[in-house]
Amino acid sequence: MKIGVLGAMPEEVSDILDSFDEKTPQNVGDRTYWEGRWRGLDAVAVFSRWGKVASAATTAILISRFEVDHVVFVGVAGAIDPLLEPGDIVVATELIQHDMDASAIPGIERFEIPLLGRKRFVVDDRAVSLAVSAATDFVDGGFELAVPAEVRAAFSISRPRVVRGLIASGDRFIADVASVADLRRQLPDLQCVEMEGAAVAQVCFELGIPISVIRIISDRADHDAPIDFARFSEQVASVIAEGVASRFLDGLASRPRESQSAA
Ligand code: ADE
């Protein structure tokens, strides 16, 4: 089994790459794909850059050229559900592209991907459970050691919650309360927003490869979001991403072979 690990920013994959047992770089286009071994599995890690086009193109290469069997996206997100706090971990059960709107064409609804005839990409239940277990295990077991007390205090993080639900992606960094309110109105079950997950999910769906998206809340998508996001990404995101993704890979590696290929 070969796992593709993606993050949109260097901070999101740096600790993961540091903990690879062995790795060799391969440049394709403007990206460096690090191929090697991690947690007993073949793995390829890459930082995709921001946005739907960058992450979709990177995913297509990860699948077609590096032949990964499961794609895992880790990174930060802005909270839409008001109960979410910085440090909380959201595991996607479904992903939607919030800026997809071809509804001016009769018969196509807002958020629907033309010709695919779907709005949401659904994540396999077993992959969701594995990611939730990995995140819970990290919060219970490794978080306090991995994130120093002064950093936790600086971001008012006590014990991160792990939630599962809908994640929306679009080519816009959301940093105003009106946009948050609009997204909540349109998508009442929405947990958080980011800029890649649903694009990666579309590529995985079309190529028949399972996906997992694990997001760490960095901000509240309000006017403070750009500042909170930058500080959080630098100081916390890579540590949580490594802690959760490593446990997720351990879970994948210990699954029976038939369910490895099915999920
Ligand atoms: N990633 C992290 N925070 C975000 C936000 N507020 N909007 C979009 N993507 C994000």
**How much beta, percentage-wise?**
25-35%
Spatial sequence of strands, sheet with the most strands? 5-9-8-6-10
Which percent range fits the helix content?
A: 25-40%
Bound molecules: adenine
CATH top level of the domain at 74-255 is Alpha Beta
CATH homologous superfamily placement of the domain at 74-255:
Nucleoside phosphorylase domain
Sheet having the most strands: 5 strands, mixed, barrel
By secondary-structure content and strand pairing, the structural class works out as alpha/beta
Q: What's the total helix number?
A: 9
- The shape is globular
Tell me the series of helices and strands, N- to C-terminal: EHEEEHEEEHHHEHEHEHH
CA(first)-CA(last) distance: 12 Å
Mean pLDDT across residues:
94
Instruction: Tell me the total number of β-strands.
Output: 10
Low-confidence stretches: none
**Architecture of the domain at 74-255 in CATH?**
3-Layer(aba) Sandwich
Tell me the Rg in angstroms: 17 Å
Q: Give the CATH topology of the domain at 74-255.
A: Rossmann fold
Give a description of the structure:
- With 263 residues, this protein is α/β, with parallel strands linked by helices.
- 40% of the residues lie in helices and 27% in strands.
- The protein has a domain at 74-255: Nucleoside phosphorylase domain (Rossmann fold, 3-Layer(aba) Sandwich).
- A hairpin with a 2-residue loop joins β3 and β4 (41-47).
- α1 runs parallel beside α8, α2 runs parallel beside α7 (197-207) and α3 (125-141) crosses α8 (225-253).
- It is globular and about 50 Å long.
- The model has no long low-confidence stretch (mean pLDDT 94).
- The structure holds adenine.
- Adenine (ADE) binds next to β5, β9, β10 and α8.
